[in-house]
Amino acid sequence: MDANTFHDCDDLISVTIGKNVTTIRSEAFAECNSLAKVKFGANVQEIGDEAFKGCTALKDLKLPSKLEKIGAQAFMNCIRITSVALPSKVSYVGDKAFFGCTGLKKVTINTEVLTTDNFGADVFGGCTALNKVTIAGEAVKIGEDAFAQVPDKAKFKITTKNKAAKDEIIRNLLLYIDTFTDAKNNVYILITDETFEAYLTGTNDAAAKSIKVPDAVTYRGLAIPVIGIQESAFKDNTAITTVTIGKNVRTIDNQAFEGCSNLKTVTIKSKNLILIGYKAFYGNSPAATYKISDKTKLAAYKQLLIDAGVEAAKIK
């Protein structure tokens, strides 16, 4: 099918692609604003650049099983498409292929041959309604900004058993995220250099009495270990009365809870604590107690607390 065949054909409502068609060339149906339904022939292997760009009535998109290539901006601004499933043979997706599909809620990537070099920029960028993404192929790799500008509420499920591939996907999904807030108003900073881990930096809830540092925090459906509490994270917060430290926390930085004058109970569940910083708990309630959950760690953690200025008698 030649380029621009039906470009800007406003009266076109539905299209059936014949079984002999293997390529839909660039802008073939671009800006066909009334086009609501496309039935692809079984042998379509390539959809060209901007082929369906701006088809604002198009919905119920079912891509053909033999499809191998989706061109740049192929379905850009198709605002009524609600779900997209990339078939297993797809090996190339161009820049902004589904950019601005603001009605898109569900994406499934099940291809075995898609690599980072062949997955363009902003493929699903600006898909502001997107809430569920499943990445299933064993060889799938996505680009660093493939899902830029999608909402934080979007949940990603990665089913590949290849750990290296899974780690790379997660890293690329988190790469441009600096900070985020969880459902309990705790604020985190993400570390994505060699690993993907989180530091607790504080809370947006000024009235919160209980601070629970979780073992891991969930962001976009991904569980991210919480390994530390940042310097001065809760300094001078007089609302806090209890603190629970999760099992993955390795460091409690300087002055993290300094001046929390009503803090009475600190429970440390960490299995890997190696540092409690200067004045981390200075100025807590005179009645404060510090409980170590893992008694095999009692001696080591007690010394860390004493070195940080906590009275030995308050540590249990």
Question: Would you mind describing this structure in some detail?
Answer:
- There is one protein chain.
- The protein is built from two helices and 21 strands.
- The chain has about 325 residues and is mostly beta strands.
- Strands 11, 12, 13, 15, 16, 18 and 20 form a seven-stranded mixed β-sheet that branches. Strands 2-4-5-7 form a four-stranded parallel β-sheet, with no helix packed on it.
- A hairpin with a 2-residue loop joins β15 and β16.
- The mean pLDDT is about 90.
Summarize the structure.
With 316 residues, the chain is mainly beta. The chain has helices at residues 163-174, 298-307, and strands at residues 14-16, 23-24, 37-39, 46-47, 69-70, 83-86, 92-93, 106-109, 132-135, 155-158, 179-181, 186-191, 197-203, 210-213, 216-219, 222-229, 242-245, 251-252, 265-268, 275-276, 289-292. It contains two helices and 21 strands.
- Specify the oligomeric state: single chain
Rg, Å, rounded? 26 Å
Give the fraction of residues assigned to helices.
under 10%
Q: Which stretches of 5+ consecutive residues score pLDDT under 50? A: none
* Overall form: elongated
Helix and strand sequence: EEEEEEEEEEHEEEEEEEEEEEH
User: What is the H level of CATH, i.e. the homologous superfamily of the largest domain?
Assistant: Ribonuclease Inhibitor
Tell me the β content. Answer: 15-25%
The total count of helices amounts to 2
Mean pLDDT: 90
The CATH architecture of the largest domain can be named as Alpha-Beta Horseshoe
Structural class of the secondary elements? mainly beta
Briefly, what CATH class of the largest domain?
A: Alpha Beta
